[in-house]
Amino acid sequence: MTIKNITFLRLSFTAALLFAPAAVAATPRPAPRHYITGNHGVRVEVPEGLYYCPLPEGWVGSDHGTTLFLVAPADCEADGTPAISIFYAFNVVEHHRGDGEERPPRTDAELRHDECPAGGGTVTGLRLLGRTVPGCSVRDGSRVTISANAVYSLERGWGMPDRTLAVTLSTSTERLSADLVTFHRLLSGISICTPNWARSKAGRPGCHEWPGSWW
Known about the structure:
The protein is α+β, with helices and mostly antiparallel strands. The chain has one domain: Mog1/PsbP, alpha/beta/alpha sandwich (Protein Transport Mog1p, Chain A, 3-Layer(aba) Sandwich), CATH 3.40.1000. It has three helices and 13 strands; from the N terminus they run αββββββββαββββαβ. The protein has helices spanning 3-19, 108-115, 176-188, and strands at residues 29-30, 34-37, 42-45, 51-52, 65-69, 83-90, 95-96, 102-103, 121-128, 131-140, 143-152, 163-172, 190-192. The radius of gyration is 17 Å and the shape is globular.
């Protein structure tokens, strides 16, 4: 599979998280206060007042994240409902770096360069995983999308992060100021935890999953 195709699949999945949750649930519900996945070591403190579409019974698939709706959608096919997507994956997509190298991103800035489309604006003041990360904004008519991207490691310790994380707000220009407050709160409540299968790291708590801790 080519890099272009892999990137297209990643972007398509993110779009599916934001705009087509019907494949994973039938009825939106108030979101629980915590979202934890030991598959990728991500822990999220969820602000009050958000909604999600739980996975249906018997669902089989890959864990790559979830969507949190900022207002209660009429149903899980609510296209265009203001939402925040959380997407995580293995850090395997390679890009040319302008120095003869073709490799996955080593830094948040490299990941932002890979993920932000041409013409995307720069967003400052975003903090994710306890640090300031470069953001990307895209406007399409009355719709605006703002994303924060970070690399992180669960297993590697030699300079190449093994995972990526993208948190993306999609809303209208009219709602942007208010929804940015929730977006910042959500970003500040995301941390990395250690799954029971990974080596512990000083200062990093365990994931402490329970049935249904990722949706």
